[in-house]
Amino acid sequence: MDNRAVEAVLNEIAALLELKGANTFKVRAYQNAARAVGNLQEDVGELVESGEIKSVRGIGKSIQEKLKELHETEELVYLEELRSGVPEGLFEIMTVPGMGPKKTKVVWEELSVTTLVDLETACKEDQVAGLKGFGKKSQAKILDGIEHLELTRGRRLRSQALPQAARLKALLEGVAGVERVEVAGSLRRGRETVKDVDLLVASLEPEAVMEAARDDPEVDSIIGSGATKTSVRLKDGLQVDVRVVEPRSFACALAYFTGSKDFNVALRGMALDQGYSLNEYDLRPLDGSPPPEFATEEELHKALGLAQYVPPELRENTGEIAAAIKGELPTLIEPTDLQGILHVHTKWSDGTGTVDEMVRGAVELGYDYLGISDHSEIAGYANGLSVDRLHRQREEIEAAREAYPQIRIFHGCEVDILGDGQLDLTDECLEWLDFVIASVHMELRQERSKMTKRLVRAMSHPQVRVFGHPLGRKLLKRDSSAFDWEPVLDACVENSIAVEVNGSPHRLDADWVHVRRIRARGVKLCVNPDAHAQATLIDAARYGVCEARRGWASKEDVVNTLDLAAFEKDFLRIG
DNA sequence: GCCGTTTTCGGCCCGACTGTTTTCAGTCG
Fold first, then answer.
1. pLDDT at A454
2. Disulfide check for A306: which of A301, A314, A504, A521 has CB 3.0–4.6 Å away?
3. pLDDT per residue over A199-239, tens digit each?
4. Nucleotides of B under 7 A from a protein CB
5. Are residue A412 and residue A550 in the same domain, yes or no?
6. What is the reported pTM?
């Protein structure tokens, strides 16, 4: 257990003690001990073994024994005892401004509030104001605080952060002396959600950059600003870190600030093995000789002994380094590899664009084929289509086919997978359609084995071509459904069904972890936009491809990189 | 629970602020 983990354990004990109303000085003792461990230069485990831990100020006899138990067993009976009966959600409640341990205890005991959502509901129902020690003002302040929490502390979607990153990049590129600006961090790696935006600037005049970052009209508050680093909070709550390095350090700095942390640690280890020390400025020989200079990350990776450059999307230390050394990284799919897209909604169900508008949008994006797939009838909330309405929609699609001969329009449907795995359309209608995407929109929380059976049954239907948004998650809002992937993927193999990589920035589903699993099983992917408006047709290329890349997908893994003839004949089995 | 002795128990950082309560408890930095 490393120092940080031990520090976290001690802090958790302190928080639990506070909640249980323990002596405040006892609480403080644990907080002090946590900080002492956090500040240690040495490994806490080694100090425990050597007995030197007792000379660390803030760690007395009792905490010494707990550290020993932690070190030897990786567990702590005392912590487990404290945890029992204390809902985890209380810790989150304590992050609300104004809600300390005492007040949290009151709402927990008096109103059975155990989560942030509970607390919000209780405030809205005017239950909190009547509690002892609370009033109208504190109730309003708590509601305000919860809203503030969601705005500033939470992660946000990639699609929300990217526009700000692009705006700031352009702003900083206009500053005198700036040679180059790049977005780094998790945004560059293509993560679905991000905590902040990292911008790296190459310049010999850092003060001008710092000033520009602070003076950005979108800045709400300045968190910190020094000679080469400024952190600000924007009006929309997003945190932005701007870091300036000299141009000659840019490649190393870009690698360093792109991460991930685990990837960097692994690279630094490789550097050490070869007699170098790698940091954000350079790759420095340990013998004191002058460091080599790199113009690009590609040169840096090569110097470290990687046969291939590792694209940012793969830098998670999940096998990419070993593969790059052996030259076994796949050539990742590019946005321009997509020849067409499926999964597009129109005004017929819950889209905002007409068939004509969506087709025109796809033509403008240069696609050779487009699949229109509105919801099936049971999706009443989305104005799903009955068999009758599907037939009437066909007339409009025929008209579009005549109007836009440059693109092939397939008429399909996103058919609901019912609770028992049956599809929400007659077999006759399913056969009549050009293609079928089968998705779950209801009963998402089914028990695992039931969900597995349901999906296997759906993927055994011969008319299904695509398994739509398999996880059923909504980023930052709803967790994935639970099911066993192997039998479901087996059914997909059996019927040559592709699993969707849904490019909606709210979904990104299947996610990169499962994309690797799907590919390993020999199942193809279909990268779709799930567009509900003309403007989001590009989401397949803009977000979906990125997610597929993170899952190591190449062009060959994705069915809609096929040209029209192959896609129609081999995948859709038309004609 | 830690520390430091006045060596075995008493002090531990504390003031500003807020809102509730009417003299102060709880939070925060």
1. 96
2. A301
3. 999 999 998 999 999 999 888 777 677 888 888 878 777 88
4. 1-4, 11-13, 18-21, 25-29
5. yes
6. 0.73
Residues A348, A449 share a domain: yes
Nucleotide nearest to A106 (CA to C1'): B26
Which range has the worst mean pLDDT, A134-138, A283-287, A518-522? A283-287
Instruction: Give CA–CA dist A196/A233, Å, rounded.
Output: 9
Minimum CA–C1' distance nucleotide for A56:
B2
- Which domain does A429 fall in, by range? 335-571
How many Cα atoms within 13 Å fall on the side-chain side of residue A85? Answer: 7
**A17 and A143 in one domain?**
no
* Strand B: protein residues, Cβ closer than 7 A: A 23, 25-26, 28-30, 32-33, 56-64, 94, 96-104, 129, 132-139, 141
Total tally of structural domains belonging to chain A:
5
Do residues A554 and A457 both lie within one domain?
yes
Q: Domain ends where: A220, A245, A270?
A: A245
Q: What is the mean pLDDT of chain A?
A: 91
Helix (H) or strand (E) holding A554: none
